[in-house]
């Protein structure tokens, strides 16, 4: 495990501490969880960008058209 020192404005640090307390977590655990979420979002974005770079635009648009048609038929669109 690595120790990481970060500098935050005092008000941001206090708000993070308050948020952690409200969730019954240590500030460290809260930052760990928030970091994991941010990294998961970044990994997902990179995955979709890689897929988009090699994807078939016509096929993707056809899939979206089918989904739109299904939504209209089911009354969701």
UniProtKB/TrEMBL annotation:
<dbReference type="Pfam" id="PF01402">
    <property type="entry name" value="RHH_1"/>
</dbReference>
<protein>
    <submittedName>
        <fullName>CopG family transcriptional regulator</fullName>
    </submittedName>
</protein>
<dbReference type="InterPro" id="IPR002145">
    <property type="entry name" value="CopG"/>
</dbReference>
<dbReference type="InterPro" id="IPR010985">
    <property type="entry name" value="Ribbon_hlx_hlx"/>
</dbReference>
<feature type="domain" description="Ribbon-helix-helix protein CopG">
    <location>
        <begin position="4"/>
        <end position="34"/>
    </location>
</feature>
């Amino acid at each position: 495990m690595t120790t990481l020192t970060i500098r935050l404005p005092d008000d941001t640090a206090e708000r993070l501490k308050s948020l952690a307390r409200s969730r019954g977590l240590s500030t460290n655990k809260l930052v760990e969880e928030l970091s994991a979420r941010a990294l998961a979002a970044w990994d997902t974005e990179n995955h979709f960008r890689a897929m988009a770079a090699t994807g078939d635009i016509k096929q993707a648009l056809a899939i979206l058209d089918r989904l739109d048609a299904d939504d209209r038929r089911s009354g969701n669109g």
